[in-house]
């Protein structure tokens, strides 16, 4: 039964298909030997032939044991074919020779041998069956051999031939139907694999394009501060720079280094996410403490633009099972964007809200609403250069990275514009 379930479960390659057809053939052959044995007994056919049939059933059972138990597939299949051919030879003599139903069995043998074996073995069994039948046919009509006339009247001859034609047709129908079903399954699987390959190829192309864009953007953004640093050091060696100029350059380099550190951090997170190596661990976290830590961490960046971060936490104490590292990455990105696109001296809000069915963080900054065209693609994972209110540069990867990370940890991210004029980016779990 397990073999039959495996046959139904998946499409097979050529060798597996031939093996499965052999299994079906064994079952149908056993059925035919017993079925026609009963029919012959009811029709009063020669008892000697019934004994021969029982001997062949026993021998055929032995080859089936070789096939199923010891898995000698090739040997057992050839022994079975030999036994069937030998039985057809005996059947010719006991079933009215060329006038009996043996020709239909030879035809079935010819067809089945082509499904069982690959060349040259299929040709050997083809030629053996055709050669044997034509030899017997010629010897019978020429009077060189004598066959038993077991049919007492034409009605018995018609009945036996009709049954044989029916069983032969069933053999062929089941075999051909099995091959067609297997082909259809294989064709469906090939179409599915082709579609998956096309999808994967498209994704790989997109990732490769993003990688190239990212490399170009990082090369451009790194070139300026590195060149400035190299030039500054060279001028210092030559005593060509004043202390005032040096301090001014250092302030500029420090500002650029903060931006680049954030860009490189996002880039590393993106690479680890794409490689599947970003480990995700959840544990009990004090939400109030986490919110304060993120806000305090970004405070120094806000102060460079004379901004401040106001934390609005609407709970006194709350412990949640969270992926702390991932939540912090998302909130830092939201705060970085809010600081970057807010004017000097403004206030950025980091808010935590909890309800009966959900909790969420909001990062809000005042300003004009993001245009609808840009809003549709805010969280698309694509490299797009952006510039803040003080010429701060970015790759545009941050929000796309946030969406990917949020999806992995079961959160939602989104953008809203409130009635009181705040751009709001939120991280929510329901």
Strand fraction band?
5-15%
How do the strands line up in the largest sheet? 2-4-5-9-8
Major β-sheet profile: 5 strands, mixed
Tally of separate domains: 2
Shape: elongated
Low-confidence stretches: 1-9
Distance between the termini: 47 Å
H and E order: HHHHHHHHEHEEHEEHEEHEE
Q: What proportion of the residues is helical, as a percent range?
A: 55-70%
Q: Specify Rg, calculated over alpha carbons.
A: 41 Å
Name the structural class: alpha+beta
Tally the helices.
12
Provide an overview of this structure:
By secondary structure, this protein is an alpha+beta fold. The chain folds into two domains: 2-195, no CATH class; 256-429, Heat Shock Protein 90 (2-Layer Sandwich). It has helices at residues 2-9, 14-43, 47-68, 73-94, 102-116, 121-141, 154-237, 243-275, 287-303, 324-340, 372-375, 397-408; strands spanning 283-286, 308-313, 319-322, 347-354, 359-366, 386-387, 393-394, 412-417, 422-429. It has a five-stranded mixed β-sheet with strand order 2-4-5-9-8. It has a two-stranded antiparallel ribbon with strand order 1-3. It catalyses: ATP + protein L-histidine = ADP + protein N-phospho-L-histidine. It is an enzyme of class 2 (transferase).
Q: What key phrases describe this protein's structure?
A:
five-stranded mixed beta sheet, elongated, Heat Shock Protein 90, BphY/WalK/GraS-like, alpha+beta, 430 residues, 2 domains, 12 helices, 9 strands
């Amino acid at each position: 039964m397990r073999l039959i379930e495996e046959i139904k479960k998946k499409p097979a390659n050529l060798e597996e298909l031939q093996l499965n057809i052999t299994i079906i053939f064994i079952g149908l052959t056993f059925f035919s030997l017993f079925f026609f044995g009963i029919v012959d007994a009811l029709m009063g056919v020669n008892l000697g032939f019934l004994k021969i049939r029982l001997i062949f059933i026993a021998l055929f059972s032995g080859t089936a044991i070789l096939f199923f138990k010891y898995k000698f597939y090739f040997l057992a299949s050839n022994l079975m074919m030999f036994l069937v051919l030998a039985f057809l030879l005996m059947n010719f003599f006991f079933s009215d020779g060329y006038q009996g139903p043996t020709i239909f069995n030879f035809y079935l043998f010819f067809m089945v041998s082509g499904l069982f074996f690959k060349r040259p073995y299929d040709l050997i069994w083809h030629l053996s069956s055709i050669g044997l039948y034509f030899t017997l046919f010629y010897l019978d009509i020429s009077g060189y051999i004598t066959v038993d006339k077991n049919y007492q009247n034409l009605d018995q001859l018609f009945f036996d031939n009709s049954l044989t034609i029916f069983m032969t047709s069933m053999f062929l129908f089941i075999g051909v139907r099995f091959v067609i079903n297997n082909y259809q399954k294989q064709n469906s699987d090939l179409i599915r694999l082709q579609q998956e390959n096309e999808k994967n190829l498209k994704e790989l192309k997109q990732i490769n394009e993003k990688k190239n864009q990212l490399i170009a953007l990082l090369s451009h953004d790194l070139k300026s501060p590195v060149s400035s640093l190299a030039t500054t050091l060279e001028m210092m060696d030559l005593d060509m720079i004043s202390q005032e100029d040096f301090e001014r350059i250092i302030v500029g380099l420090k500002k650029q280094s903060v931006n680049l550190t954030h860009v490189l951090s996002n880039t590393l997170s993106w690479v680890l996410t794409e490689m599947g190596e970003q480990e995700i661990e959840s544990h009990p976290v004090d939400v109030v403490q986490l919110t304060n830590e993120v806000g305090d961490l970004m405070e120094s960046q806000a102060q460079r633009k004379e901004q401040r971060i106001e934390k609005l936490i609407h709970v006194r104490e709350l412990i949640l099972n969270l992926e702390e590292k991932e939540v912090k990455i998302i909130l830092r990105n939201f705060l970085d964007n809010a600081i970057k696109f807010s004017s000097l001296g403004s206030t950025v809000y980091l808010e935590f809200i909890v309800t009966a069915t959900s909790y969420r963080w909001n990062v809000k900054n005042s300003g004009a609403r993001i245009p609808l065209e840009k809003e549709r693609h805010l969280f698309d994972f694509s490299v797009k250069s952006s510039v803040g209110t003080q010429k701060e540069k970015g790759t545009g990867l941050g929000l796309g990275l946030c969406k990917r990370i949020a999806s992995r940890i079961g959160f939602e991210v989104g953008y809203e514009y409130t009635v009181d004029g705040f751009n709001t980016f939120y991280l929510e779990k329901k």
